[in-house]
């Protein structure tokens, strides 16, 4: 496959409730965690909610390098995206992505001091399908 079909990749992502999200710790080791995908804008921007007090949030404030992985085990297809994670604490962003039920995690509501949004911006990807793979940049895919 010379270039993956963008719509096929979007269907894979949007068929996954969760993403495996990776950060880099102080010793340079990758750390992975499953997180709910709150929203995405195509394949370029992804949103997750988190706690300001979370270890992972602190790691991204120190080193914004990040990775997302989406998988459909039934079709043996997966998509890894590499890029950067930004911690967003402004009220406008937090209110925009607030959902009913979030008070379970952030009891003070959308202005809870421990509530933040994480914005991942993809730069490159690696699409795994069956026994093949395709490495690409987001600029190539969008262009």
Unreliably modeled segments: none
Chain oligomer state: single chain
Number of domains: 1
- Which percent range fits the helix content? 10-25%
Name of the level-1 CATH class: Mainly Beta
- The sequence of SSEs as H and E is HEEEEHEEHEEH
CATH homologous superfamily title: Electron Transport, Fmn-binding Protein, Chain A
Structural class call reads alpha+beta
Instruction: Tell me the number of helical segments per DSSP (H or I, 4 or more residues long).
Output: 4
| Main β sheet profile | 8 strands, antiparallel
Tell me the strand percentage band. over 45%
- What is the radius of gyration computed over CA atoms, rounded to a whole number of angstroms? 16 Å
Question: Which term fits the overall shape?
Answer: globular
């Amino acid at each position: 496959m010379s270039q993956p079909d963008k719509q096929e990749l979007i269907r894979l992502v949007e068929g996954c409730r969760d993403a495996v999200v990776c950060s880099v710790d102080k010793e340079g080791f990758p750390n992975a965690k499953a997180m709910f995908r709150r929203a995405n804008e195509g394949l370029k921007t992804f949103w997750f909610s988190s706690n300001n007090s979370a270890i992972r949030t602190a790691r991204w404030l120190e080193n914004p390098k990040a990775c997302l992985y989406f998988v459909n085990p039934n079709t043996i297809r997966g998509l890894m995206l590499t890029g950067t994670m930004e911690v967003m604490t402004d009220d406008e962003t937090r209110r925009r992505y607030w959902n009913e039920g979030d008070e379970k995690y952030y009891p003070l509501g959308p202005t809870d001091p421990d509530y933040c949004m994480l914005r991942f911006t993809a730069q490159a990807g690696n699409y795994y399908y069956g026994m093949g793979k395709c490495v690409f940049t987001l600029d190539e895919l969008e262009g």
